[in-house]
Amino acid sequence: MGGTGRPTLLYMHLHILKGRIHLDSRSTCRDAWLISHISGGHMRAWQRMSATLVVVAAASSPALAAATPDDATPPDTLAACPAGTVGVPVLLIHGTNADVERSLGPTRQALADDGRCVYGPDFDSTRPLSESVDYFAAVVEHIRAVNGVDVIDVVGKSQGGLIARAVSLKFAGQQSNPIRNLVTVSGPHQGVTEFAGSTNLNPVALLVPGLPAAAHDMLAGSEFLTELDADGMTAPGVRYTLIGTRTDRIVTPYTSSFIDAPNTTDILIQDGCPEDLAGHLAESADPRTIDLTLNALDPVRHHTVRCVANDDQR
After folding, report:
1. Helix, strand, or coil here: 255?
2. Which GO molecular function, any one, fits this protein according to its record (predicted)?
3. Mind listing the pLDDT tens digit for each residue in 276-286?
4. Does domain 69-192+217-297 match CATH 3.40.50.1820?
């Protein structure tokens, strides 16, 4: 990226189908996802399915430049909700290598159509999750202050879902939590432990320079997750709705998206709609996933959840 001093990262997707590997260049960007190692002994596990891995190549520098708070939308630039909006404000937190439009664009539009006030600040999804949690905690406090409200609703997709839950735990010691409803879509709450259905693949076997801290934080057993969940995975007073899909090939196993706790509702989109096979990326525009999110935030207004066949397993 000219003039920034940051390396340009080339994202390539490995499509492994019927034992053949195909590379295609999709985009240049500054985020990264997990690096998986495939040795000859592990190739059979990949040949049994069509999978996508993200391979990161630094094109101009041997390491990623350190993320700074300047990469995120300053909280104090977020204006008060316009007059006429209904309900409490909604904060959307996007996933890795994305923005709110790509992660939760249709959900944002549906909320706006309802008259809700929606915030979707950008942030650097490569930074350590602890930094992102601190940032979004400040965002929550600013939204409350500028609007004069006690609580807000939060929706997070993928990494954004884990960040949202961590923010709710950060406020757990307060007399009342500023988060009322928290909805996550395929958030890696339990951490990622499997790749392409195999537990034998080491996700950090190829430690390239600059592998983002966020990727390490989302691995099962990471220091971040261990410390986060030391006193429990949920905060009192928050209603959690955790949505996941059986066809998820990024947050694996897909059950990592769920939590067993009294104040959580775990929803597999295939329950009651087996023909909806939307994968991790496809969930962003999946009608059922969107309806489930709206239902969790306002079950009176959105009591109907559609079942629409979806074969997009990306």
Report:
1. helix
2. hydrolase activity
3. 999 999 999 99
4. yes
